[in-house]
Design brief:
With 512 residues, this protein is α+β, with helices and mostly antiparallel strands. It is 36% helix and 21% strand. It contains 20 helices and 17 strands. The strands form 5 sheets. It has a 7-stranded mixed β-sheet with strand order 9-12-13-17-16-15-14, sandwiched between helices. It is found in: Cytoplasm.
Amino acid sequence: MAQTSSASTGDLTTEILQALSQKDPINSTEAFPQIPFEFIKAALDRLASRSMVKYEQIEREEAFLEPEAEIIVSHGSHEARVFDAVHKALEGLSIQDLEKEIGDKTVTKLGQGKAFKEKWIKKDGSKLVALVDSINDVTRDQLRVIKETKTHDAKIIADLKKRKLLKLQKVISFTIHKAEKFALEMVKEETDLTAEMLASGAWKEATFKPYNFKALGADQHAGALHPLNKVRSEFRQIFFEMGFTEMPTNQFVESGFWNFDTLFVPQQHPARDLQDTFYVSDPPKAGRPTATGPDDKADYEEYFKNVQQVHQDGKYDSIGYRYPWAEDESLRLVLRTHTTSVSAAMLHKLAQQKDENGRVPPARYFSIDRVFRNETVDATHLCEFHQVEGVIADYGLTLGGLMEFMDMFFGAMGVTDLRYKPAYNPYTEPSMEIFSHHKGLNKLIEIGNSGIFRPEMLEAMGLPRDLRVFGFGLSLERPTMIKYGISNIRELLGHQVDLSFVQKNPAVRFDK
């Protein structure tokens, strides 16, 4: 009782020092058996921080008896009780009489089976009779040993645990030693240097508590960047280091002209169906494309007609799709399905620029923003997601150069061993899908799409025939899932997001 009260009054540190002065080392369980673990740990940390003691933590499993096992220790095992009852009846016992004698049907049922197995009893007609004169109650003896020592042979422990007679618990104790500043009393340590101490000179004799620079400190409840924003920041840094310029993407609603027609997507393409696209009903349609400012001198009317001719009749050595192109369909408003619509507008503006030699200069553009598709939601798809878009316009570009750039770009974020698959895009030829292995899903998943823009699409904008343009796009969510080991995209966005995941995950570093 004295030990329990001392723990509650804060005198446990003194008791530890007193015990250690008489014996070094000591075991906390032996020296202070009644004091809870948390009190012992707090006192030891307080002494260890002053270099008065040092300690090692010992973890072990101990066996504790279940209530049924306590009954066995007191009255004998079920099988022994059955044997004793049968042995006392010289002419044997019926099962009904055995139940009355023991007074517990469960003990009778379990004990019979074990007694039969041990060949202590047998059935003779309608009665049970003893086969031996005496027995050794092994189960009771084993449980007595476990009750005293909290342990036994591993095979015996496993067998008794299977019979639900005991349970295993982790027990933590400490081996405590004297340290270099061991003393029987704790020296009071000052935490602040006060004006009074300076005036009186008491600071010369005072012992100051050292600063703990490893302490975590109080939680400041600060805000945290979402993992998507962390990965987005790294993407932007990679693009800037590679000489890209960020495109303006602050327009979620686009006309079908910019979202589809400029990209050579025919008006009968499945991607333009309601099953794949979200259309805006109010207002019902947009106006024709016009200049975006006083400095925009491009001829948008000519561009509009060029796009119509490329689709309907063919132009620039292309035979086109040869269908009646509808202006109303082109001007329908849609939640943009990709940021490539912004890339098309930027390339159209690029065609108006000329360098000192009268040529359109090379350019690199990128954007990272939201797009919307009428998708079925599953582990890797959402109706709303972020697209990372890149465009490279230059002379003499080849498909091999595009693959090399993709290896460099994804390699900068730590995603290697890419796989390429031929694909079809209306606005690029050739086209490639890009795959990477996801360890969490244990399969290859598509992380991007790429290709070289079709020449008729570029020439309709006014770009020269010898200019080539790489285009590539990937989602922001899937690389984030790979980097953070997320198997279900709904754990990243939506109502299933764990806020502690947002708060505690470190900033991603692709080069680490």
